[in-house]
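Form 12-C: Joint structure prediction
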Amino acid sequence: MLTTVGTTLGELVKRLGGELIGNPDLVVSGIAPLDQADSASITFLSNPKLRKQAAATLAAAMIVKPGDAQFLQEQAQGAFAVTLIVADNPYAYYARAAQWFEQLRRLPLAAGIHPTASVDPAAQVAATATIGPLVCIEANAVIGEYARIDAGCFIGRGATIGDHAHFHANVSWHHDCHIGQRAIVYSGAVIGGEGFGFANDAGVWLKIPQTGRVVIGNDVEIGGNTTIDRGALSDTIIEDGVKLDNQIQIGHNCHIGAHTAMAGCVGVAGSARIGKHCTFGGAAMVLGHLTIADNVHISSGSMVSRSILEAGQYTGFYPLAKNADWEKSAAIVRNLDSLRDKVRALEKTINALNSAQNESNHD
Amino acid sequence: MLTTVGTTLGELVKRLGGELIGNPDLVVSGIAPLDQADSASITFLSNPKLRKQAAATLAAAMIVKPGDAQFLQEQAQGAFAVTLIVADNPYAYYARAAQWFEQLRRLPLAAGIHPTASVDPAAQVAATATIGPLVCIEANAVIGEYARIDAGCFIGRGATIGDHAHFHANVSWHHDCHIGQRAIVYSGAVIGGEGFGFANDAGVWLKIPQTGRVVIGNDVEIGGNTTIDRGALSDTIIEDGVKLDNQIQIGHNCHIGAHTAMAGCVGVAGSARIGKHCTFGGAAMVLGHLTIADNVHISSGSMVSRSILEAGQYTGFYPLAKNADWEKSAAIVRNLDSLRDKVRALEKTINALNSAQNESNHD
Amino acid sequence: MLTTVGTTLGELVKRLGGELIGNPDLVVSGIAPLDQADSASITFLSNPKLRKQAAATLAAAMIVKPGDAQFLQEQAQGAFAVTLIVADNPYAYYARAAQWFEQLRRLPLAAGIHPTASVDPAAQVAATATIGPLVCIEANAVIGEYARIDAGCFIGRGATIGDHAHFHANVSWHHDCHIGQRAIVYSGAVIGGEGFGFANDAGVWLKIPQTGRVVIGNDVEIGGNTTIDRGALSDTIIEDGVKLDNQIQIGHNCHIGAHTAMAGCVGVAGSARIGKHCTFGGAAMVLGHLTIADNVHISSGSMVSRSILEAGQYTGFYPLAKNADWEKSAAIVRNLDSLRDKVRALEKTINALNSAQNESNHD
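Section 2 - Result
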């Protein structure tokens, strides 16, 4: 684990809530998993299967659910030596505590524009923003308060970047696209490229200019090398709190509802409309012009080829097998209709046999 | 919709063809879908299912097929108020009109090399080309007339970029690779990286240097974060008019025929030879060393594991289902050979029964 | 083929081993495939199916297995005119010879830092390293001897890059991440972005700061636009000799064993532990927290959803078919349990029929 400047448990609870059982003056300097934590660390127990591991932890303190706190103290017959922070959602508490440690550890940033950056005089960069080396910001772009744009980023004309946004190195952010406050955009992301729109004229593809934008809400995170295309006539929309992992592709005119999360390598074709609080496993794909309801969960590697109007978990990938076994099952899948036809023929024969036998029995 | 400097319908028809039914002096300033167009817009009807919507449009003018023009006028008993442009392919006409509006709207570009760019003295940059901030152009690279290379691009030594090409920000274009006229390359694309070629020597991979190039024709579009590897000994070839969406991977020594289009996240392994006028849905994959004929269409999410020598539409992805239903079907797929064996056993039993009954009937 | 400064066969064999049958003073200037080689080239025969093609080659020299050498000379009745280099693994010999030609051909690089690069005074750049135009190197980064960092790369604070590493243009290498000697990293790769770690708190995602690093061994190759996330609490680890193709995604806290190779578009979710000497075909996916043994080979397009503890080849993708045929098989797959239930019902009926007939036969 990375150590850091410490904080007392009392200060942590004052800041993040929860009930402290133990010494508020104890200093912890970082967070570690149950099995790696030492006497300078706080750890957490969110999976009840790990109760036994938790009972043996060397951590100074542990974030636990009320039920787990009771269990641990009973196990130790009231002598459990680890200070406890009791919270309803220890994993969320861990996230907040880790953010706090991160903030303590963060190096101070000098506001201002690096001398090697190329910033158009007509761009508006907040005085509190930090623009890194070799950044290019075009005319009329607006960079918010305390925003941080790292080395090599490109911000197109008229783009607007919210307060406290952090763009990692080498992001390409195209003209007129917007993102809200506290955005995090990772390296190599490309936002606002032109969507894949063509008309076919006698076998030749004619480009349809893409004149919409990408408009993104607050608290959105965009992974490394993810691409989001601008709309054709209207805008591509990403609502608040959406989290996109690396190498995701979002086509033109998609609309993604608030707090939906997508794991790496997901692809969404153009004009798909996805609800709020959905999750997509890695490499899931969504065809264009589909509608997906709120609270839909798509398993990894699954292809969504029809709209989904009912919440729930959906899956569709071919089960893995030893190659020889797959060869067998794939050959049958290829000819499944002949297997089905055989079963139908058997049904007929048996019905005939049955009738014949019944007749013969009634003879 | 984005408004723009206007154009008269007469000028539009003079430039793009089609039959004008209505006022040639009417000025339109942009294009919008049927349901969003207003009296300053032109719209289009290409899908006959939208005829009713078309009849109610507020647009100033509409691009229509001859049959639809007749329908609309009959519906309105000859009093259809919207000016019509009659064309055989309204969607292609829309694309061309949108390109024209785009051209009217385009900001003038100053030719020349931005002072923060690093251009080798031995590079040849046309006097009409525009080289953006923080671009790197190596020795002996050639940049064509009116080409535009946006911020942060890298153009390797000896590369040749055709006239009127537009490279968006942060493209990586490696040494000796060529692209023709009117190319559009989006941000983050990597062209001419070394292919994935290794010889295995007792468990250790030995790199095989990749000494071919990538050679690309005219009117090609390459999406954001797409990668095309240079050939091992000979070249990777992309013919004229090919359109590649975002995050596509093309392996070394592939050959892609003219006017083939691939949607996002497609992968093509090395030495595949793909015909002309093919289309690939999103995330389709093609194994290496395969041949695919002209006019083959691969559905999204499908794996091409054998050569395809006949034109047509091909598909192969596991159908999506509620997770519980998928669990059931996947378990059966895993053991499909035992289901098939059961059916075979049933056939035998029934044949035996049949014979027995026939015998007994003949008793 | 690209020609180059020549080398004698005697020098080649002295350098790379193998038995020379023919003239050691013969000069060759490059390598070409059997059917393209000319009298200035050396070629190789590694696939016994190509023996006939080999017999007709125009190459000056050929790398062959002992058995193939014998075959060719017998065929030509002792008069085979092509000089032979006999080696146990001609393909590996070809790789080494090609590396040697590549080295002869390589342009000399001037060591030093390009004046447009932005290198923090607290970075340590070896005097023999070459830092290209518009590179950004942050404080405390260490660049090894003879390393080459091409245009537009970003190297974060505290990162360490081994001797003889070559970073192609526009790589993003984040703070504190390490790579060993002779690394090759292609354009657009993003190493050390923050992993996709969130806790869900009443529907809202809370970011979990990712405080681990990415730690990579020697002789590793990382493809264009590949992304490798840093660990959450501990590190993401890539061992020696791993080869990653383009557009691969490696999640946080993965551990990839030595000499494992992955083809393009592979995705590996977080905390997967993959063995040594494994191979992954293009677009294979691995779910998180799985364990994969040494010497496991995953076919292209396959989803690994369970741990694999036994070496071997594994596959799982839906077989491609003409779309109409796929529609049929997919419809049956969707309802496979009803087909299975029918078979079960038939079994029952037949058992009953059998019993009835037996009884009737015993009447």
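Section 3 - Comments
Chain A touches chain C through 78 residues (CB under 8 Å). The first strand of chain A starts at residue 7 and ends at 8.
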